[in-house]
Write a structure and sequence with these properties.
Layout lengths: L11 H23 L8 H14 L2 H13 L7 H31 L5 H6 L10 H16 L4 H25 L15 H11 L5 H28 L14 H17 L6 H12 L1 H17 L13 H23 L10
Helix pairs in contact: 1-2, 1-3, 1-10, 1-11, 1-12, 1-13, 2-9, 3-6, 3-8, 3-10, 4-6, 7-8, 8-10, 9-10, 12-13
Length: 347
């Protein structure tokens, strides 16, 4: 991907991608605290991690929406060209990094790899964050279908999705309502993000809409973080992420509001250095995504000579420090890999 700043290139898609990957990293960094339980840290540290994690849940929906914004408008692109580009971009990275993480898990657990484990990646992620590949690949299969729709068709898909998926998700949570086994892992449940992203990208937003978006984002954050905190306290600190799911209505509302704000913010004139940094992070987004769990694990175990994690010492300091270190190292490693022709296809 070309990262040169040119007048013709819009910044807001890069801004959304850059912030989206930063939010994903923030979710995994703050998860080091939340996964250990409420009573392992001071309440203020727990609520801080909960807030970071809750706001960070907008990252994945932003990825889905920007994909819809950029892909659904290319109705004249041949289907063969579309899939060839996706295979070279996502397919290679999926296979390579699934193999990498399979080997890492095998070494850690001292369990030898078998052909069944290799072929198992067709159905089961090799590591916790790689679930995203399965969903985005599934959504890519829907793109040619959605390209046949006109503006009204896109709108109807978005409305139907908004009126059904959050409700089905709630039923799944409250009443163990299921579709085809595990409802939460079915990629079409994310499909509405594609059409919503396409529609949002075509919009022009006045001051009133921007203010409303800011209010929705703040209120959604309060509901997400506050509601999750209350539920967790009632369950003796056991982590319950029901309100943090990407199909929860509060997360959808937050993500849509943030998309609008970023689209506007990315449409203004930025200093050249800041613009270049945003475009570089955007171009390195896939690499940052696949690499950052390796760095999180290595830093936590002290493999670099120092031990660093979000729950080490004072989490109010260690969490943001861990985030910055992991984000910068992931960015740097990806940037260097992109300079190597043989390896650049992996990131």
């Amino acid at each position: 991907m070309n990262t040169d700043a040119t007048p013709e290139r819009l910044l807001w898609p890069d801004l959304i991608r850059a912030l989206a990957i930063a939010l994903v990293v923030a979710v995994h960094v703050s998860g080091q605290i939340l996964n250990n339980g409420y009573y392992t840290v001071k309440p203020i540290a727990w609520w801080f991690a909960l807030a970071v994690n809750g706001i960070g849940r907008c990252g994945v929906p932003l990825f889905f929406m920007i994909s819809g914004a950029l892909l659904l408008g290319k109705a004249n692109e041949p289907i063969s060209t579309f899939f060839r580009k996706r295979a070279s971009r996502i397919g290679i990275a999926f296979i390579v990094w699934s193999m990498v993480y399979l080997i890492i898990v095998s070494v850690r657990t001292h369990v030898p790899l078998t052909p069944a484990k290799y072929f198992g990646i067709l159905a089961t992620p090799a590591y916790y964050h790689l679930w995203f590949f399965y969903s985005i690949i599934g959504l890519y299969l829907l793109v040619p279908v959605f390209r046949f729709l006109d503006a009204n068709g896109m709108k109807y898909v978005s409305i139907f999705w908004l009126c059904s998926i959050p409700v089905l998700f709630m039923l799944h949570k409250v009443y163990s309502f299921t579709i085809q086994g595990n409802f939460t892992n079915i990629f079409p449940t994310y499909a509405g993000f594609l059409t919503i992203g396409y529609q949002l990208a075509k919009g022009k937003y006045n001051r009133g809409v921007l203010i409303l978006s800011a209010v929705v984002f703040v209120l959604g954050s309060i509901v997400s973080v506050g509601g999750t905190g209350i539920v967790n306290m009632r369950h003796n600190g056991a982590l319950d992420t029901f309100l943090y799911d990407y199909r929860a209505l509060n997360i959808i509302a937050m993500s849509v509001a943030l998309f609008i704000l970023l689209q506007k913010w990315g449409s203004v004139v930025w200093p050249a250095a800041a613009r270049s940094a945003v475009q570089s992070i955007s171009a390195c987004g896939l690499g940052i995504f696949v690499i950052h769990p390796l760095l999180l694990d290595a830093l936590r175990s002290g493999k670099f000579g120092i031990s660093l994690s979000s729950n080490a010492g004072n989490p109010l300091l260690s969490l943001p420090l861990t985030f910055v270190v992991v984000m910068l190292l992931s960015w740097l490693i990806t940037f260097l890999i992109l300079k190597i022709p043989v390896l650049r296809a992996c990131v």
